[in-house]
Amino acid sequence: MSLSIASASYGADQVGLISGYRFVPGQRGEAIGSDAALEFLRSSPQNEGFVWLHFNLAHVACERWMRANLPLPEDFDEMLHAGGGSTRIEPAGGMLLAVINDVALGFGVVSSDVATLWVAAGSRLLVTARVRPLRSVDRLRAAVKAGEVFPSARSLLFHLMQDQADVMAGIVRETTRKVDHIEDRLLAERLQDHRAELSGMRRTLVRMQRLLAPEPGALFRLLNRPPSWLAEPDVQALRESTEEFSLVLNDLATLVERIKLLQEELAAKLNEQTNRTLFTLTMVTVLALPINIVAGFFGMNVGGVPLANHPHGFWVLVALVASFTLLAGWWAFSRQAAR
């Protein structure tokens, strides 16, 4: 075979492992494979440190290998088969199980689509699994490669949640910048039809808000009744992540409402512009009405056309048409002013 197993598995090894790291207290993470991770997990508990294994669920062997080799509670397997949905985090079997909705990462293109990440965090093991690449996991992996030190698997999970909040904050900032630009053009009366762009941004933000809104509630429920094995520093880190994520969601909701008001204002401006155009067309029609009527009468090829033999008949008709036109214009503009 000319292609390696990793290349044929789209960035994962033969069991669907995308990346694995072993962490020793006070040291940076060391990249390991699936076999080395199993050897560490089966070693004596006195062997300090933990491993982080990140899997690609699109790999056919991934779930079967995790179920057969990793010490994961049954609830994690149920969460995987329940599919994506609202964010949740709960203790089970001495581990923290979480379903996190995050922003997908395209190939060279930052996407605004939302995808799901399944997480299981214990004392010696952190497992993350996804179907599509995610931005927050990519940020976390970059931090590990940069040499950041993590004291426990749960601290790595809380850093992941912090990255998730940072990604959301970045999306809110970028969308706010675009909305500011559209609002400035609207205030400067340089109207353009931004309705499709605003609708797309609002639709994306509302979808993200619907999927991510349950996360602070799930975290606060866990903080109100934390399990006994969750250390106080971990509880504090989780509380800080929850508060920051709540602020980001509030900013997102405010931005959605702002886009809604801007859409209404833009629609009102465009309707007003359309009404002015229709009024101009109506005025042209009204002012041309006397000319058309008189021209129609005098254009008939019948006998008895008045002023046909009068030496000043043409100018009499011009004066008559101009008088009717001025009268029609005065009537139309007076009606418009009365409104």
From TrEMBL:
Compartment annotation: Cell membrane
Pfam family, one: CorA
Location (main, coarse): membrane
Molecular function as annotated in GO: cobalt ion binding; cobalt ion transmembrane transporter activity; magnesium ion binding; magnesium ion transmembrane transporter activity
CDD domains according to UniProt: ZntB_u1
Keywords: Cell inner membrane, Cell membrane, Ion transport, Membrane, Transmembrane, Transmembrane helix, Transport, Zinc
Membrane topology: Multi-pass membrane protein
Residue ranges of the TM segments: 278-300, 312-333
Cellular component terms per the entry's GO annotation: plasma membrane
InterPro entries: CorA_cytoplasmic_dom, CorA_TM1_TM2, MgTranspt_CorA/ZnTranspt_ZntB
Similarity comment: family membership: Belongs to the CorA metal ion transporter (MIT) (TC 1.A.35) family.
Protein name: Magnesium and cobalt transport protein CorA
Gene source species: Aquitalea magnusonii
